[in-house]
UniProtKB/TrEMBL annotation:
Keywords: Cell membrane, Membrane, Transmembrane, Transmembrane helix. It holds the Pfam family LysE. The chain crosses the membrane at residues 46-68, 75-93, 151-179. GO terms for molecular function: amino acid transmembrane transporter activity. It is a multi-pass membrane protein. GO terms for cellular component: plasma membrane. InterPro entries: LeuE-type. It is found in: Cell membrane. This is Threonine/homoserine/homoserine lactone efflux protein. Signal peptide: none annotated. It comes from Krasilnikoviella flava.
Length: 213
């Protein structure tokens, strides 16, 4: 298998996973609809930065160590689950407490403001999900040609995943950016927060259950 063949084969696998709606899609939609396209792109950038970090960790062996150590995996999984449940519960709490005319003023419970907040949410949520790292550990060795530096190849594969994810989520941001202004001020923003918060809570709970099995 040559490098171009490996990249193409990985792109097919990663592309199919990218198209499946999940937590990343929910976060990008939330940032775009409740705020603006620029906030949606900030969340997208954070998600893809997290993907690159996981790719580098997998290629460098850190994620392989995580996959091999059941204790380390459970600790990170429970920490990630707690973080997601806390974040989701905070969104739900704020959406129910917010006045009906608050609209897009419902904030995330993060210490910094502006677009950095959305970038931090995308990055931290991605990094706190150990299943991303385990996916890379399982996938990357299958697409490293003989004689090729594993670290370099791992970064190239993560970059391919980032390009695909950026292309798809950019379409989501553009579409949500068109709908967003029509929803703000109508009370729909609070329901977007509730939906995203619910997804985070359910995903976190599922992570916690999987860590205890």
């Amino acid at each position: 298998m040559t490098i171009p063949e490996a990249l193409l084969a990985f792109a097919l696998v990663a592309g199919l996973l990218t198209l499946v709606p999940g937590l990343d899609t929910a976060l990008v939609l939330r940032s775009t609809v409740t705020r603006s396209r620029s906030h949606g792109f900030a969340a997208l950038a954070g998600i893809q930065l997290g993907t690159l970090v996981w790719g580098a960790a997998a290629a460098g062996g850190a994620a392989a160590l995580l996959a091999a150590s059941q204790t380390a995996y459970r600790v990170l999984t429970l920490a990630g689950a707690a973080y997601m449940v806390w974040m989701g519960a905070s969104m739900l709490w704020r959406s129910f407490r917010a006045p009906r005319d608050a609209g897009a003023d419902v904030d995330l419970p993060l210490p910094t403001g502006g677009r950095w907040r959305d970038l931090g949410l995308g990055l931290s949520t991605n990094l706190m999900n150990p299943k991303v790292g385990v996916f890379y550990v399982a996938a990357i060795p299958q697409f490293v040609p003989d004689g090729v530096n594993p670290l370099l190849m791992g970064l190239l594969l993560a970059l391919v995943h980032c390009v695909l994810g950026t292309a798809w989520l950019s379409l989501v941001v553009l579409g949500a950016g068109w709908v967003g202004p029509r929803l703000r001020g109508s009370g729909a923003v609070r329901w977007v927060d509730r939906a995203t918060g619910g997804v985070l809570v359910l995903f976190g709970a599922r992570l916690a259950v999987s860590a205890r099995v």
